[in-house]
Amino acid sequence: MASGGKSYFSENVPKIVVQSLFRKYDTDDSGRLQKTELMTLLKDDLGMDSKQAEAVMMLVDKDGSGAVSFEEFFQWLREGQGLKNVDNTTRYYYIRKAVDLFKTYDKDASGTIEPNELKELLKSVGYTGSVESALKVLDKDRNNKVSFPEFLQWLNWIPT
């Protein structure tokens, strides 16, 4: 990945600079970057390949909606994670594995694992409790589905 992209992820970058970058790619002026818009930003401006951009998209889209608000994007930048998850080979390896595993159970490609999909996931790991009780633990934002960040936290593969 191009190292020049890291400058966008500095905690010291003024909010107005990030807003300008965000607006450049918000081509439909919706105030949200749709998946294709964010993928273009990550690949064109930050030099990521498609797999890296997909992993970052899934990490930034906290609610699994398929779009990222400015606040989600800005918070992700300010958290200091920036490119750490794709620049560090070990972290990226585990994130990539998690993305592939997540997509296995996200049968409808909605960007979230819904209760019926969660049932299959839980069965595959030998969980014998109810889907409802598992959902209470996994679903941190209480929207009745598991987003990728929630799934990644559950896996506990990546140290914070």
From TrEMBL:
Annotated ranges, domain EF-hand = 13-47, 48-83, 93-128
Q: Which UniProt keywords apply?
A: Calcium, Metal-binding, Repeat
Example of a GO MF term: calcium ion binding
Establish whether keyword Kinase is in the entry.
no
Query: Does the keyword Transmembrane feature in the UniProt annotation?
Result: no
What Pfam families does the record tag this protein with?
EF-hand_7 (PF13499)
From the record, give the transmembrane residue ranges. none
- Origin: domain of life: Eukaryota
Spell out the Gene3D superfamilies in the cross-references.
Answer: EF-hand (1.10.238.10)
Q: Which InterPro entries match?
A: EF-hand-dom_pair, EF_Hand_1_Ca_BS, EF_hand_dom
User: Which protein, by its recorded name, is this?
Assistant: Polcalcin Jun o 2-like
